[in-house]
Amino acid sequence: MKFAVTSQNFRTVTPHAGRARRFLVFEAKEGAEPKEVDRLDLAKELAMHDWHGTGAHPLDAVDVLIAGSFGEGFGQRMASRGIVAVRTDNTDPLEAVKDYLAGKLAPAGPSCDESHHHQHQHAHAHGHAHGHGHGHAHGHGHAHGGCCCHHEEGA
């Protein structure tokens, strides 16, 4: 079984799986200690938030993705690719894999703890230059609502 653990610094489990580009890859065989077998350092356009391709993706090689946080849409996208996405409060990647193997991390559900909702604003500005010496920008703002984090009680 292969695991990808979000780790922007290649040392700790980090949040925001949809924007993550760095992952520690572990392999776990029954009865053996999980081992780090690879590191993914994806190009910006391969972060799941930005990637809208329909073909193969480097994360397709894993069975389970572990992250500090992600939204419901990310969990659904992973499930549609045959990848189980789980959240953890553990910051140690190896321990997070062990927690999953021990049944301590459940696959992400469709809803989050009602007391822990976030609203994130993302604004995008696009400049357009014209040949007559001036440019103007068009602001395109959109809001992403919903829960991006999940903290399990007693985990």
Automatic annotation (TrEMBL):
Domain Dinitrogenase iron-molybdenum cofactor biosynthesis, chain residue ranges per copy: 12-101
Keyword Cell inner membrane: no
Domain of life of the native organism: Bacteria
Disordered: annotated segments: 108-144
Record's compositionally biased regions (Basic residues): 117-143
Keyword Plastid: no
Assigned keywords, A-Z: Nitrogen fixation
UniProt protein name: Dinitrogenase iron-molybdenum cofactor
